[in-house]
Design brief:
Layout: H1 2-12, E1 15-17, E2 51-59, E3 71-79, E4 90-99, H2 106-111, E5 114-115, E6 119-123, H3 127-142, E7 156-160, H4 175-183, E8 202-203, E9 206-207, E10 209-219, E11 222-233, H5 247-250, E12 267-274, H6 280-296, E13 306-313, H7 324-352, E14 356-357, E15 363-364, H8 369-378
Parallel strand pairs: 6-7, 12-13
Antiparallel strand pairs: 1-2, 2-3, 3-6, 4-5, 4-13, 8-9, 10-11, 11-12, 14-15
Helix pairs in contact: 3-4, 6-7
Length: 384
């Protein structure tokens, strides 16, 4: 198995991908049941205007040489508006379930909850270059040249740690990778698993990475979309729960094969987008509900896990001006959809991710699809 993985990586050579790839397996395709009604692509890009771009770096194999590799990392960018105009701002809110991690501009968004520009997600040691590259991209595209030009802004860049597979101290992410992800961002179907910032990530001690999902909800007389994108790099095997089934306890073997002990705590970054006209304080309430979606997959947010979430609205105007009783009926569908889409995004990331060999020959196995189906069927939780 190990030799096969190495040969596959060797054939791939050095890869920098920012384009759409082949259609991947998704959790619903396997018969895993989820609540709620997804949008047409079951992705964050179902929210009108939202685009996602990737740069994926896979290079080298074998022994770790800092600065040389092996490289298993990348960048994910989320653009709030496809026809992006820098002068437009988006109501936004940040919530930290556990602050063992980084999301730049977090303090700014707490006091001045307006999002300007794209959101970047990468590995822990590349937050700075991604932040600065987003700022440079904004300046190059939208600078007016005036004394008070704020086109660089305060970019949002978040991270999870991929040092189990990637030469993380080699600082392989460069500005041109960020520019490529931004320039190639698109709507519609997006890749999941071993792509972008999720390339080298591990989830519940299986291969993790990037995942997405969406929900359509009716609020009063209007219909809205809630989209979620996750970079999943958290959890211990015994905790893994899928569709309410204790899958982690049922799945024996296929644990990570590590040449040397490495830290096993991880993190999760979650981006929530919606076209519902939510105020920042309402978006923060929605962002808090991400915690419940993560918990459905079995996590208790361990001490070393950085669990940080950002929610934003693309609505042009704020329409809701209701009393608290009316707000219950308005917001509860948003909350429920956020929980559902977060849960499915995480499982989608694991289903799409493929086994990967990285530094020092470390191997992280993929979630075994057929064995998972057998377990769900045993518990009468498989949709045939």
């Amino acid at each position: 198995m190990r030799t096969l993985i190495f040969l596959l990586l060797l054939l791939m050579g050095s890869q920098l991908s920012a384009q759409q790839g082949p259609i991947q397996a998704r959790a619903r395709d396997m018969g895993i049941p989820f609540d709620g009604t997804p949008g047409p692509h079951n992705a964050i890009t179902d929210v009108p205007g939202v685009k996602v771009g990737y740069a994926t770096l896979i290079e080298g194999e074998g022994r770790l040489e800092v600065g040389k590799g092996p490289v298993r990392t990348g960048v994910t960018v989320v653009l709030p508006s496809g026809d992006f105009s820098y002068m437009r701002s988006f109501p936004a809110a940040v919530f930290s379930l556990n602050g063992m991690g980084e999301m730049t501009a977090g303090l700014y968004l707490q006091d001045y909850p307006l999002l300007y520009g794209p959101i970047g997600i990468t590995n822990t040691n590349s937050v700075g270059v991604v932040r600065d590259a987003i700022g440079k991209w904004l300046f190059d595209h939208y600078s007016t040249g005036g004394l008070f030009d704020f086109s660089f802004g305060l970019p949002v860049a978040a991270e999870t740690w991929d040092g189990m597979l990637n030469d993380i101290n080699g600082l392989h992410i460069k500005p041109e990778h960020v520019f490529a992800a931004l320039d190639n961002a698109h709507s519609g179907r997006i890749e999941e698993g071993n792509v972008g910032g999720g390339t080298g990530m591990v989830c519940y001690e299986f291969k993790g990475g990037t995942g997405t999902s969406s929900r359509r909800v009716r609020v009063g007389t209007e219909e809205y979309t809630i989209g979620v994108l996750v970079q999943a790099n958290f959890g211990r095997r015994p905790s893994l729960t899928i569709a309410g089934v204790p899958v982690g306890r049922e799945l024996a073997g296929q644990m990570p094969e590590l040449k040397e002990p490495v830290r096993s705590d991880g993190s999760i970054i979650v981006i929530v987008a919606t076209d519902a006209p939510l105020l920042p304080w309402q978006l923060q309430l929605a962002a808090k509900r991400v915690s419940l979606g993560i918990a459905r997959t079995g996590s208790y947010s361990s001490m070393g896990s950085g669990d940080i979430f950002l929610a934003f609205s693309t609505a042009d105007t704020i329409q809701w001006n209701s009393n608290l009783d009316e707000l219950d009926a308005l917001l509860n569908p948003i909350f429920q959809a956020t929980v559902e889409a977060t849960e499915e995004s995480i499982i989608n990331a694991m289903v799409a991710a493929e086994a990967m060999a990285g530094i020092n020959g470390n191997i992280i196995h993929a979630l075994p699809h057929e064995r998972l189906r057998e377990i769900l069927k045993l518990y009468n939780r498989l949709v045939e």
